[in-house]
Amino acid sequence: MADKSDDRERGYIVISTTLEYAKKFEGCKVIPYGDVYPAIYRQVFGPASRRDCEKWVAANCAKSTKATS
Question: Are 52 and 13 in contact (CB under 8 A)?
Fold first, then answer.
């Protein structure tokens, strides 16, 4: 069974429902790198640390959505 250190070593990515590059991305979520996600999302940042991903979301994603894990 995987422990929490495995997740930290894999890193995290940011996914978004925005299809094209825009000033602010919509529907952003931070998820572990390698996790499966629905086809309506695309990777827009990472892999990086969870903290770096959350900072990126705060700077680049619309304020109406929040990052979740």
Answer: no
